[in-house]
Write a structure and sequence with these properties.
Order of helices and strands: HEHHEEHHEEE
Helix content: 25-40%
Oligomer: single chain
CATH topology: OB fold (Dihydrolipoamide Acetyltransferase, E2P)
Radius of gyration: 22 Å
Structural class: alpha/beta
CATH superfamily: Nucleic acid-binding proteins
Distance between the termini: 86 Å
Number of helices: 5
Number of strands: 6
Strand content: 25-35%
Strand order of the largest sheet: 2-3-4-6-5
CATH class: Mainly Beta
Amino acid sequence: MQNRKYLIGGGLILAAVIYLVISSTKANAQYFLTVDELLARKDEMVGRQVRLSGAVIGDTIQYNPDDLELRFMIAHVPGDLDEVESEGGLAAVLAAAVRDPNRNRIEVVYYGPKPDLLRNEAQAILTGTLGEDGVFYADELLLKCPTRYEAAEPQAADGR
Protein backbone atom coordinates (compact mmCIF):
# COMPACT_ATOMS: atom_id res chain seq x y z
CA MET A 1 0.00 0.00 0.00
CA GLN A 2 2.78 2.41 0.93
CA ASN A 3 4.75 1.58 -2.23
CA ARG A 4 1.70 2.44 -4.32
CA LYS A 5 1.64 5.97 -2.82
CA TYR A 6 5.30 6.49 -3.77
CA LEU A 7 4.70 5.18 -7.29
CA ILE A 8 1.69 7.46 -7.79
CA GLY A 9 3.55 10.46 -6.35
CA GLY A 10 6.64 9.75 -8.47
CA GLY A 11 4.46 9.33 -11.56
CA LEU A 12 2.77 12.68 -10.95
CA ILE A 13 6.12 14.42 -10.50
CA LEU A 14 7.48 12.82 -13.68
CA ALA A 15 4.36 13.85 -15.63
CA ALA A 16 4.70 17.43 -14.37
CA VAL A 17 8.38 17.58 -15.40
CA ILE A 18 7.59 16.21 -18.87
CA TYR A 19 4.76 18.74 -19.28
CA LEU A 20 7.03 21.65 -18.26
CA VAL A 21 9.78 20.59 -20.67
CA ILE A 22 7.37 20.25 -23.60
CA SER A 23 5.53 23.51 -22.91
CA SER A 24 8.73 25.55 -22.51
CA THR A 25 10.18 24.06 -25.70
CA LYS A 26 7.10 25.07 -27.68
CA ALA A 27 7.08 28.57 -26.16
CA ASN A 28 10.72 29.19 -27.09
CA ALA A 29 10.56 27.65 -30.57
CA GLN A 30 11.53 29.97 -33.40
CA TYR A 31 11.09 29.55 -37.10
CA PHE A 32 14.26 30.01 -39.22
CA LEU A 33 13.13 31.28 -42.60
CA THR A 34 14.44 32.76 -45.82
CA VAL A 35 12.88 35.94 -47.21
CA ASP A 36 10.90 33.91 -49.77
CA GLU A 37 9.55 31.58 -47.08
CA LEU A 38 8.55 34.46 -44.81
CA LEU A 39 6.73 36.31 -47.59
CA ALA A 40 4.98 33.10 -48.73
CA ARG A 41 3.65 32.57 -45.17
CA LYS A 42 3.20 36.27 -44.41
CA ASP A 43 -0.33 36.07 -42.97
CA GLU A 44 0.45 33.27 -40.51
CA MET A 45 3.84 34.73 -39.48
CA VAL A 46 2.72 38.25 -38.49
CA GLY A 47 3.59 38.82 -34.84
CA ARG A 48 5.48 35.53 -34.41
CA GLN A 49 9.10 35.35 -33.31
CA VAL A 50 11.18 34.45 -36.38
CA ARG A 51 14.83 34.10 -37.40
CA LEU A 52 15.36 35.48 -40.87
CA SER A 53 18.34 35.34 -43.19
CA GLY A 54 19.14 37.45 -46.24
CA ALA A 55 21.67 39.64 -48.06
CA VAL A 56 21.96 43.32 -47.08
CA ILE A 57 21.29 45.73 -49.94
CA GLY A 58 23.85 48.43 -49.20
CA ASP A 59 22.25 51.43 -50.91
CA THR A 60 19.09 51.02 -48.76
CA ILE A 61 20.87 51.48 -45.42
CA GLN A 62 19.52 54.46 -43.48
CA TYR A 63 20.65 55.23 -39.94
CA ASN A 64 19.37 57.91 -37.59
CA PRO A 65 21.85 58.30 -34.70
CA ASP A 66 19.39 60.47 -32.70
CA ASP A 67 16.91 57.66 -32.08
CA LEU A 68 19.24 54.77 -33.11
CA GLU A 69 16.83 53.68 -35.84
CA LEU A 70 18.41 51.56 -38.55
CA ARG A 71 16.50 50.71 -41.73
CA PHE A 72 17.65 48.59 -44.63
CA MET A 73 16.44 45.98 -47.08
CA ILE A 74 17.51 42.37 -47.34
CA ALA A 75 17.18 40.16 -50.40
CA HIS A 76 16.37 36.46 -50.53
CA VAL A 77 19.29 34.05 -50.22
CA PRO A 78 18.70 30.29 -50.55
CA GLY A 79 18.66 28.43 -47.25
CA ASP A 80 19.84 25.11 -48.70
CA LEU A 81 23.62 24.67 -48.36
CA ASP A 82 23.83 22.42 -51.41
CA GLU A 83 22.12 25.09 -53.50
CA VAL A 84 24.50 27.76 -52.17
CA GLU A 85 27.52 25.59 -53.07
CA SER A 86 26.14 24.85 -56.54
CA GLU A 87 25.80 28.61 -57.17
CA GLY A 88 29.47 29.28 -56.39
CA GLY A 89 29.53 29.64 -52.61
CA LEU A 90 28.10 32.12 -50.15
CA ALA A 91 29.99 35.21 -51.38
CA ALA A 92 28.71 34.66 -54.94
CA VAL A 93 25.16 34.00 -53.72
CA LEU A 94 25.11 37.15 -51.58
CA ALA A 95 26.40 39.27 -54.47
CA ALA A 96 23.85 37.81 -56.89
CA ALA A 97 21.01 38.36 -54.43
CA VAL A 98 21.82 42.05 -54.04
CA ARG A 99 22.20 42.65 -57.80
CA ASP A 100 19.02 40.83 -58.84
CA PRO A 101 16.08 43.28 -58.77
CA ASN A 102 13.62 40.39 -59.20
CA ARG A 103 14.52 38.73 -55.89
CA ASN A 104 12.08 39.06 -53.04
CA ARG A 105 13.11 41.75 -50.56
CA ILE A 106 11.90 42.86 -47.19
CA GLU A 107 12.46 46.04 -45.21
CA VAL A 108 14.10 45.66 -41.80
CA VAL A 109 13.92 48.07 -38.87
CA TYR A 110 16.33 47.70 -35.96
CA TYR A 111 16.89 49.98 -32.96
CA GLY A 112 20.41 50.08 -31.62
CA PRO A 113 23.90 51.14 -32.59
CA LYS A 114 24.83 50.68 -36.25
CA PRO A 115 27.02 47.56 -36.57
CA ASP A 116 30.42 47.96 -38.22
CA LEU A 117 29.79 44.97 -40.49
CA LEU A 118 26.59 46.44 -41.94
CA ARG A 119 27.51 46.87 -45.60
CA ASN A 120 26.47 45.82 -49.05
CA GLU A 121 26.30 42.05 -49.58
CA ALA A 122 26.71 41.18 -45.90
CA GLN A 123 24.73 38.18 -44.72
CA ALA A 124 22.17 39.27 -42.13
CA ILE A 125 20.69 36.85 -39.63
CA LEU A 126 17.89 38.58 -37.77
CA THR A 127 15.62 37.65 -34.89
CA GLY A 128 12.37 39.55 -34.58
CA THR A 129 8.77 39.77 -35.75
CA LEU A 130 7.00 40.58 -38.97
CA GLY A 131 4.69 43.55 -38.55
CA GLU A 132 1.26 43.86 -40.14
CA ASP A 133 2.78 46.61 -42.30
CA GLY A 134 5.10 44.05 -43.95
CA VAL A 135 8.22 45.38 -42.20
CA PHE A 136 10.46 43.02 -40.25
CA TYR A 137 11.21 44.47 -36.79
CA ALA A 138 14.50 42.98 -35.63
CA ASP A 139 15.37 42.55 -31.96
CA GLU A 140 18.74 40.94 -32.69
CA LEU A 141 21.04 41.51 -35.64
CA LEU A 142 23.97 39.30 -36.61
CA LEU A 143 26.05 40.21 -39.65
CA LYS A 144 28.66 38.24 -41.51
CA CYS A 145 31.01 40.11 -43.81
CA PRO A 146 30.95 38.81 -47.41
CA THR A 147 34.73 39.04 -47.81
CA ARG A 148 35.13 36.20 -45.31
CA TYR A 149 33.57 33.86 -47.85
CA GLU A 150 35.75 34.77 -50.82
CA ALA A 151 38.42 32.25 -51.68
CA ALA A 152 41.82 33.17 -50.30
CA GLU A 153 44.53 33.92 -52.85
CA PRO A 154 46.94 31.00 -53.00
CA GLN A 155 50.49 32.00 -52.20
CA ALA A 156 53.47 30.81 -54.20
CA ALA A 157 55.70 28.27 -52.46
CA ASP A 158 58.83 30.34 -53.06
CA GLY A 159 57.35 33.42 -51.30
CA ARG A 160 56.66 35.53 -54.41
